[in-house]
Amino acid sequence: xxxxxxxxxxxxxxxxxSLAPKDQFTISGTFDVINPVKEHLKNGTDVAIEFxxxxxxIENIEFLSSRGIDVVxxxxxxxxxxxxxxxxxxxxxxxxxxxxxxxxxxxxxFQIVKNAAKLINNYPQYDTGIKEVHHTQKLDKPSxxxxxxxxxxxxxxxxxxxxxSDSARPEKNEINIISERITDVVGRHEVDFESEADTxxxxxxxxxxxxxxxxxxxxxxxxxGKKGFYKFEDIFSxxxxx
Length: 242
Known about the structure:
Elements: E1 2-7, H1 11-19, E2 25-31, H2 37-40, E3 47-50, H3 57-66, E4 70-73, H4 82-92, E5 95-98, H5 104-120, E6 127-134, H6 144-156, E7 162-165, E8 174-181, E9 187-194, E10 199-206, H7 210-223, E11 228-231, H8 232-235
């Protein structure tokens, strides 16, 4: 049985709570700005799933790790501070796993894009672009998921060396990520490989937050009792939904 704290109790936190199997998890506490984790966390928590904000995530990771709690981090917008987080995890000897997107479907999508990019690399007549659409409450832009998709394409296509955001005239070596924020959209990511003859489109469209919650619970099962810094997509293929 995993004693699970939910740090960030918005729509994602509530979905995780509703889907957590009762024979595998018990919720030790739910926390938000009204009920701060630093003031109200009780002893005995094994793992915390952290979905807060870029402004508070590092402080939360430090606090949770100092209490010996392993962390599943779904907050984005902090990746330029990864070295700080690695130092925190090493200092306290805890486990940490993060993802730009914990959705089971998105992690399958990553692998599809990865393999498609390697194939497209043999056909230079195709250019590549990314479009992402999210709800208006999403703070970071472009999304962490879109950036990770761009990284997979950069690894696979030799003619691309960087990505740009909402550029009117991207350079030939750049991947342009177009971002939109629309009310009541969970998340949509599209990759287009376009030539003068045709367009090949790969699309992942999230219908609800369920896939994110299922992935976060998989990550919690994986990280309990482990030490070190992990990326969900690196171990995703070894995990199975129960």
